[in-house]
TrEMBL record:
This is DUF155 domain-containing protein. Signal peptide: none annotated. InterPro entries: DUF155 (IPR003734), RMD1/Sad1-interacting (IPR051624). PANTHER family: REQUIRED FOR MEIOTIC NUCLEAR DIVISION PROTEIN 1 HOMOLOG. It comes from Pneumocystis jirovecii. It comes from the Eukaryota. One of its GO terms (cellular component) is mitochondrion. Transmembrane segments: none annotated. Belongs to the RMD1/sif2 family.
Length: 310
C-alpha cells in the first residue's frame, strides 16, 4: 500500500475533494478582481487560497492555480457553482484558452482513509496519521497541488487519445498502398501533434519537476510526492510518452510518403516538359516553313483580288 503522512484535521469535516482543469491558464489580474477579499495569494505556488467560500449555507476551502485548475474541499456538488460564478462568470474573462471538456480528479474519505478515484482499491490508500505540524493549510495545499497536476495531465491524456482515434485507420490504409490523407490534412495533423507536444513539454504545471515550494519542507514534499505516486502520475506520463512516440513516428511516415509522392509527381512533370521540348525542336522547322507558305498564299490571294477589282 501507499502511505502518506497527513494531518487528520484536514479531512475532519471535509469528506470530499475535487480538482478541475478548465483552461491552459488563468488570467492573474482578472481572477484577482473577481475573488472575494479574503482570498490569499501564494506566490511560490502561483495559486490563490480561498478559505470558507460560501455556497448556500456551506463553506468550502478552495485553491485556484494559475496553471488553469482549481481544487475545492468539502463538496463535490458545489464545484459547478464555483466554476459558473467565478471561473466562467459572464463579466470577466478568467480562462486563457479554455478546454471544451473540463477534466476532474476526485478524492473521498472513508473513516481515516483517503480513497483516490471512484472505485475502492486497496492499492491506492493514503493513511492519515497524527500531525507533526499544525500547518493545516500547507497540508491541504500539497494535496490540492498534486490533484491539480493529475487533473491537468488528464486533459492531455484525453487530447492525445482523441488524436490517436482520428489516425487509427491510417496504418491499414498504408498497408493497402493507399495514402489516406491529402496534403492539407497531413499538414493539419502535424500541426495538431506539434501543438500537443508544446502543451505537454512546456506546460506551466511542469509534470516532471518538483515545485520549489517543497524544497524547504521535507514533510510536505513527501506528502506531495506520495500523493502523485498514488495517482500513478509517473506511470501515466510513461504511457503518454509511449503513445506520443507512436504518433510522432506515424506522422513522420506520412510526411515521408507525402514527400515521395510529391517527388514522383515532379519527376513526371519534368519528363513531360523534356518530351514537349524535344518534340518542339522537331516540329519547329516545319512550322516555320508552313508559316512562310501561308504568307505566300495570302499574298497571291490579295494580288488576285486586286486584279479582279481593276
Amino acid at each position: 500500500m501507499n502511505f502518506v503522512k497527513m494531518y487528520s484535521e484536514v479531512f475532519k469535516f471535509k469528506k470530499d475533494v475535487i480538482a478541475f482543469s478548465t483552461a491552459e491558464s488563468y488570467d492573474f489580474l482578472n481572477l484577482k478582481s473577481v475573488l472575494p477579499k479574503n482570498a490569499i495569494y501564494l506566490p511560490k505556488n502561483s495559486a490563490f487560497y480561498l478559505p470558507k467560500w460560501s455556497s448556500d449555507t456551506h463553506f468550502h476551502d478552495i485553491f485556484i492555480f494559475l496553471s488553469g485548475s482549481f481544487v475545492i474541499w468539502g463538496s463535490i456538488e458545489k464545484s459547478q457553482d464555483f466554476l459558473k460564478t467565478i471561473i466562467r462568470n459572464k463579466l470577466t474573462k478568467i480562462e486563457i484558452n479554455s478546454y471544451n471538456k473540463s477534466t476532474k480528479t476526485s478524492i473521498s474519505v472513508q473513516k481515516d482513509l483517503i480513497i483516490i478515484g471512484n472505485d475502492f482499491n486497496h492499492d491506492k490508500l493514503l493513511n492519515l496519521e497524527t500531525p507533526s505540524s499544525d500547518n493545516i493549510i500547507m497540508a491541504q495545499l500539497s494535496f490540492a497541488q498534486s490533484l491539480a497536476r493529475s487533473s491537468k495531465l488528464a486533459v492531455l491524456e484525453d487530447e492525445l487519445e482523441s488524436y490517436l482515434n482520428d489516425v487509427k485507420t491510417i496504418p491499414d490504409s498504408l498497408a493497402l498502398g493507399k495514402i489516406p490523407l491529402k496534403r492539407r490534412e497531413i499538414i493539419q495533423k502535424t500541426g495538431i501533434l506539434l501543438r500537443f507536444r508544446q502543451h505537454f513539454n512546456l506546460n506551466p504545471e511542469n509534470f516532471l519537476d518538483l515545485p520549489e515550494f517543497y524544497w524547504e519542507n521535507v514533510k510536505l514534499e513527501e506528502c506531495y510526492l506520495k500523493t502523485l505516486e498514488a495517482l500513478d502520475i509517473d506511470l501515466r506520463l510513461n504511457i503518454v510518452n509511449t503513445k506520443l512516440n507512436y504518433a510522432t513516428e506515424l506522422q513522420f511516415t506520412l510526411r515521408e510518403v507525402l514527400s515521395e509522392n510529391t517527388a514522383h509527381r515532379l519527376e513526371l512533370i519534368i519528363t513531360w516538359l523534356i518530351f514537349i521540348e524535344r518534340n518542339y525542336e522537331v516540329i519547329h522547322p516545319f512550322s516555320l516553313h508552313l508559316k512562310h507558305f501561308e504568307k505566300q498564299l495570302i499574298y497571291i490571294y490579295v494580288s488576285g483580288m486586286k486584279k479582279y477589282i481593276m
